[in-house]
Amino acid sequence: MAAPDSASLLARSLKAANRFPQRVALVACGAMAWPALVMAWQVVTRTLGPNPLEQVIRTPGKWALVLLLVVLALTPLRQLMVLAARRLGWRWGRRLADWNWLIRLRRHVGLASFFYAFVHVMLYGTLDLGWDWDEFVEDASNKPFVLAGVAAIVLLTPLAITSTDAWMRRLKRNWKRVHWLVYPAAVFAVLHFIWMSKLGVHRPYVYGAVLLVLLLYRLVMRRKPEAAGRDALGEEAPERPAAAS
Ligand code: HEM
Q1: Residue of 58, 128, 197 to test ligand 1 pocket, by largest number of atoms within 8 Å of CB
Q2: Which position among 27, 126, 151, 223 has the lowest Cβ density within 10 Å, counted as fewest Cβ atoms?
Q3: For the segment 112-141, what is each residue's pLDDT rounded down to a tens digit?
C-alpha cells in the first residue's frame, strides 16, 4: 500500500479535528497553559531575569493580549481557509463546516485570555500596589495606560461570565450583542500596551497593526460580504453544537 502523501495526511488530521473537537480543545488548552507553567517554573527556580517583579506582572498581560487577538482571528482564519481550499483545489476544506473546530476553540481561547488578564491584574494589585486603594487612585490618575487596562478588564469580565451555554441560552440574540464587547476590549488592551511603552519600542504597534487588520476585515465583511467571498461561503455554521444553542 502506498504511503499517504503529506497533503492527504494533513486533510485526514483536519477531518479528525472536526470529528473530535474535545481533543483539539484539550491540546489547545495544554498549549495555552504552557506560558503559565513556564512562568511558575521561573518563579520557583528564581530565573525570571534582572527585573522579576516587572516580568511577573507583564508576562500574563502579554499572553492575555495575544490570546485576545487569536480569538478575533479565528473567524477570519476559518473563512480564509475555505477560500484557500477552493482556490488551491483541495479535496477537503471547501465548506465552512469543515473548519468548525476552529470556531469551537473560540470560547476556550477567550477564557484563557481572561484568565491571563485576571492573573495580570491580581499580580499588579498584590505586588505593585499591595492592595493600597490610594496608590491605585494615584496610579490611575497619573497613568492613562492604567485606565485603559481597567477599561479592558471591565469589558472582558461580562464576556467571561456569559461564556457558558446556560448564559448563551438565557441571553438568546443579546448574547451576540454582549460579545461584541470583545472589540472595544481589544482596542483598550492595545492602547494600554502602547501608552505604557517607552518611545521607540515597536512591539505594541505590531499588536496594534494586527488588531487594525482584524477590525478592517470585520468591517469589510459586514459592509460588503462578497468582497471577502462570504456569499460564496454561505451562512456561518453555529458556534456550538445545536444542543447548546
Ligand atoms: C485593571 C486593569 C489593568 C492594570 C491595572 C494593568 C496594569 C499593568 C501594568 C502595571 C503593567 C506593567 C507596566 C510596566 O511594567 O511599566 C502592564 C503591562 C501590560 N498589560 Fe496590563 N493592566 C491591566 C489590564 C490589562 C489587560 C486586560 C490586558 C490585556 C488584555 C493587559 C495587557 C498588558 C500588556 C500586553 C502589558 C505589557 C506586557 C509586555 O511588556 O510584554 N493589561 N499592565
Answers
A1: 58
A2: 223
A3: 999 999 999 999 999 999 999 999 999 999
